Amino acid sequence: MGYGSGACTELLFELSAVFGEEYGWRYYLTPALQGRFGARRGALAVGVLWGLWHLPLNLFFYSPDTSLQSIAAQLVVCVTLGVFFTFAYEKCGKNIWLPVVLHYLNNSMVLVWTGTADISNQIISWTDVAISAIMYGVVFLSFLAAKCYRKNK
Predict the structure, then answer these.
(1) Is 80 within 8 Å of 137 (Cβ atoms)?
(2) Average model confidence (pLDDT) across the chain
(3) What's the longest Cα–Cα distance across the chain?
(4) ∠ CA 78-81-87 to the nearest 5 degrees?
(5) How far is CA 32 from CA 63, 77, 92, 121, 142, in A?
(6) Per residue in 135-152, is it b (16+ CB within 10 Å) or e — as a string?
(7) Residue 66 burial (CB < 10 Å; 0-12/13-18/19+)?
(8) What does the DSSP assignment read for 108-121?
(9) What pTM does this model have?
(10) Does residue 116 or residue 2 have the better pLDDT?
């Protein structure tokens, strides 16, 4: 498989999409909500909003037959990864590019896990949601103990 201009165009399109999201979530909204609710609760609130942002995709594309499970799984992923992305953003001198790259890599992992780029019409069970909540929670929520999350309102 070559890396012609089509692959470069696709990469630039994907990076611009995640850049737009991360600019909004990490650069703009996170500091605003952290200033209002504190570092931890502000980051968690952004994660919830980020998860709800994907609601139309969960309802109509990712998993229309198991949409409640899809929404729950999306919220788990967005809240937990949001904590980690915010930690990375803070630790790298508020450089937006690290969360952009992390977001891009997360979105691209579907190719690794499934071997296909087709992520539509998934069937997600409540067991899948529980397993992802445990795994993501253990790995990413531990970052809430970091110094950058101990800032007061």
Answers:
(1) yes
(2) 90
(3) 51
(4) 130
(5) 32, 22, 19, 36, 23
(6) ebeeebeebbebebbeee
(7) buried
(8) HHHHHHHSSS---S
(9) 0.88
(10) 116
